[in-house]
Design brief:
Radius of gyration: 21 Å
Number of domains: 2
Strand order of the largest sheet: 8-11-12-5-13-14
Bound molecules: adenosine-5'-triphosphate
Largest sheet: 6 strands, mixed
CATH superfamily of the largest domain: P-loop containing nucleotide triphosphate hydrolases
CATH class of the largest domain: Alpha Beta
Length: 289
């Protein structure tokens, strides 16, 4: 979406678009998991993709991350059409994905995890060895830059809290030059305080100029940091709005199913007409909620 905002009467050019999906669809055999999905990600902005279970969020991530290919539509990176054949191809275009399970090795040290798969080496030929000193120094500098307080980088990553581990994965993606950062429900398994810490680093990634796709089913978390909101509902985009166009209340309501939820709430609150639990379950099964 192109929108020109004004600040103090001065027109602001919209940030550069890095990633654009146009009418993207995905079929798994007979299952049409995504249909006509269009969205854009801009530098220095957070695009939140919200949706309930089965809405198609994972499918969307997998297409952008190169794990699956789309069946319809186009994906463009910096204006150039792409079709990723592997996660490596997506990574080479500057797209980094931080999955919920993080791909960190719990028993390995923090610095080792920071460089996992991209270890620095020193020396030549048979004398080549890991450049531990440099890796520790860089990991320390990068985490400090992000304001992540880890007193001892030799500690195993598994000893850190879930929130700290998310932050380390985000800092690592930024250090290795990500232009687009996909975060797969980074706050889903966290409590309120830890979620706040992670959201702070999501905002830092945005402030570092990355385009962020923040996948979540929590409208409150999305609204704390998002510039743009896209709701997926059974594979379709049911809402696509800039922050200036929507309130948290409306986002929450749309996310909760809007009219469907209102009808159910009305049914449940009507005196003497409380539906049998079995009927409620059947209704929720029908609506997929
Ligand atoms: N490999 C697959 N083969 C067949 N159907 C699939 C496959 N992966 C996903 N689906 C179907 O596609 C639809 C979207 O699933 P997807 O996992 O993308 O949703 P989601 O929003 O990520 O849900 P959740 O939050 O539960 O992970 C669902 O109906 C799902 O059953």
């Amino acid at each position: 979406m192109t929108e020109t905002t004004t600040a103090g009467g001065v027109p602001q050019t919209p940030n550069t678009e890095i990633l654009r999906l146009t009418d993207v669809g995905k079929r798994y055999g007979n299952v049409h998991a995504l249909r006509g999905v269009s969205l854009s990600v801009r530098q220095g902005e957070i695009t939140c993709v919200l949706g309930d279970n089965g809405a198609g969020k994972s499918t969307l991530i997998k297409i952008i991350a190169g794990l699956h290919q789309h069946s319809e539509g186009t994906v463009q990176v910096n204006g150039e059409e792409v079709r990723f054949g592997s996660p490596r191809e997506s990574l080479e275009r500057g797209i980094a994905t931080v999955y919920q399970d993080l791909a960190l090795v719990p028993l390995m040290s923090i610095w080792r995890n920071f460089f996992l798969g991209a270890e620095l080496r020193t020396g030549v030929g048979p004398l080549k060895r890991l450049d531990v000193k440099r890796m520790v120094a860089i990991a320390d500098e990068e985490l400090t830059k992000m304001g992540i307080a880890v007193p001892d980088l030799e500690r195993p990553v598994g000893a850190l809290s879930g929130g700290q581990r998310q932050c380390i994965a985000i800092a690592r993606a930024i250090y290795f030059g990500a232009k687009v950062l996909i975060l797969d429900e980074p706050t889903a398994a966290l409590g309120v305080k830890q979620s706040g810490v992670v959201l702070k680093y999501v905002a830092k990634a945005r402030d570092a100029g990355l385009g962020v796709i923040f996948i979540t089913h929590n409208p409150h978390h999305a609204y704390l940091v998002g510039n743009h909101f896209v709701i997926l509902n059974r594979g379709n985009v049911s809402l696509d709005m800039a922050r200036s166009q929507i309130t948290l209340d409306r986002l929450t309501n749309e996310m909760a199913g809007g009219a469907e939820l209102e009808a159910l709430s009305h049914e449940l609150s009507a005196p003497g007409q409380t539906p049998e639990p079995a009927a409620v379950l059947a209704a929720s099964r029908e609506t997929g909620r």
